[in-house]
Design goal:
alpha+beta, three-stranded mixed β-sheet, SUF system Fe-S cluster assembly protein
Length: about 110
């Protein structure tokens, strides 16, 4: 019998994992930086992450989404991971959490 896990608990685990991924140019994790727009988890434990980059010309445009997919895929119980990259709305500094702004000396 397969272990059952609450979808909300899995979502929280995904967020904890996202907080271990850092933008190489900014010493703040991508979740607090505001690059993660949404995380969807369905009843089959398939995950879709809607994310952006600080700019379309971001030097890690190829590697950062792959890192997100690999790390989230490694979470126990996660089946499939889809990353959707969007620039609508474009990322702005206002999307950062208070914690990120404090870390970067913006408060």
């Amino acid at each position: 019998m397969e272990e059952q896990i609450d979808v909300n608990d899995l979502g929280e685990n995904i967020v904890r994992t996202l907080k271990t991924i850092f933008d190489p140019e900014i010493p703040v994790d991508i979740y607090e930086l505001g690059l993660i727009y949404d995380v969807f988890v369905n009843e089959n434990y398939d995950v879709k992450i809607l994310m952006t980059l600080t700019s379309p010309n971001c030097p890690v445009a190829e590697t950062l989404p792959m890192e997100v997919k690999e790390k989230v895929s490694s979470i126990n119980m996660v089946k499939e991971v889809e990353i959707e990259l969007t620039f609508d709305p474009p990322w702005e500094k206002d999307m950062m959490s208070e914690e990120a702004k404090l870390e970067l000396g913006m408060l």
